[in-house]
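Query structure, 350 tokens:
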């Protein structure tokens, strides 16, 4: 009798355990994240792509955006470099943000590859592009409860300019690989980075720049082999990701030269951003801010650390193995720090 009773107890326990396991498996199978659910969105047909009309004094033009994911509390608008670059420099974000369910929006600025190209230099001003970002913010319903703005290189200039005018719309700000002063950027390139190069090669580059011989294939060859692979993306050119190559292939040279200039050693000549400097205004930025620099960048990492201390609520992330595109050549450091910042601001633990 005792044996039969024990057998019954064991059988009951096993049956209960099987039911629990089955229920647990069903629960896991039934769970479906809404992160990639576009079924209730007006951009489902286009896979997240929206052409947003931008009103300017010269007419209305459309700019290209593409949303990835859904997250009502963490939305990151990505501002590419150049000017005249493309969103492709951020393609590697696909490998990190979805796993954290962070929503992000690719965006080609006006006169960049996927957007309209009026080719009107009167629109090539920081004031225009700040207004463009603001119109995009409104069109995408971004606000102070969810809106993170990330800009890399020229996009970093734009993030600073936007924050100084519209920071009440922001939840978080990320300045990636950009100093707050064009003159200081030029000084670092010419006094620190240039002299580190082979003296003969640097002299040859300087001579071609002095003679405005920028179209000489030799000029590009010297930069690519001796400067870009050291300070733009630290890997052999043949190993550069297709996304980075697309940025170069699709770059709009007209707007780039107009605003940045021909030289890679700072903003020179008649570049419209040549004297741009907001270093004294950084103290007015009160929104939580992450400044990302890299040891081998074209931008001075010590200066960028100083920037993070000038803003009211700043944090500095150094990519020790990175250069200007540290989202590629020091990827783990870059995304670990970036994701932590976004979540810390979201959790209000920043």
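Result returned for the query:
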């Amino acid at each position: 009798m005792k044996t039969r009773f024990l057998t019954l107890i064991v059988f009951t326990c096993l049956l209960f355990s099987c039911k629990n396991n089955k229920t647990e498996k069903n629960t896991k199978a039934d769970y479906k994240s809404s992160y990639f659910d576009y079924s209730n969105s007006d951009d489902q047909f286009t896979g997240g792509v929206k052409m947003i009309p931008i009103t300017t004094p010269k007419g209305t033009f459309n700019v290209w955006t593409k949303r990835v994911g859904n997250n009502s509390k963490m939305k990151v608008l990505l501002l590419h470099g150049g000017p005249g670059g493309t969103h492709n420099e951020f393609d590697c974000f696909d490998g990190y943000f979805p796993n954290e369910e962070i929503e992000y929006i690719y965006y080609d600025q006006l006169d960049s590859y996927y957007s309209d190209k009026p080719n009107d230099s009167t629109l090539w001003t920081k004031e225009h592009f700040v207004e463009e970002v603001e119109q995009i913010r409104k069109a995408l319903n971004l606000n102070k409860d969810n809106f993170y703005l990330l800009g890399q290189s020229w996009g970093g200039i734009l993030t600073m300019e936007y924050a100084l005018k519209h920071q009440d719309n922001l939840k978080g700000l990320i300045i990636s690989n950009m100093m707050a002063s064009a003159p200081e950027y030029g000084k670092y390139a010419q006094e620190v980075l240039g002299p580190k190069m082979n003296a003969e090669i640097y002299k040859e580059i300087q001579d071609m720049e002095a003679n405005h011989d920028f179209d000489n294939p030799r000029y590009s060859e010297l930069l690519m082999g001796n400067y870009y692979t050291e300070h733009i993306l630290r890997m052999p050119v043949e190993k550069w990701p297709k996304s980075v190559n697309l940025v170069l292939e699709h770059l709009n040279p007209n707007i780039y030269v107009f605003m940045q200039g021909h030289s890679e050693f700072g903003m020179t000549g008649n570049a419209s951003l040549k004297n741009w400097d907001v270093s004294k205004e950084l103290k007015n930025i009160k929104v939580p801010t992450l400044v990302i620099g890299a040891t081998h960048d074209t931008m001075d990492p010590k200066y960028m650390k100083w920037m993070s201390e000038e803003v009211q609520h700043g944090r500095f992330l150094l990519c020790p193995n990175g250069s200007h595109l540290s989202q590629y050549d020091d990827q783990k450091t870059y995304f670990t720090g970036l994701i932590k910042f976004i979540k810390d601001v979201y959790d209000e633990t920043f």
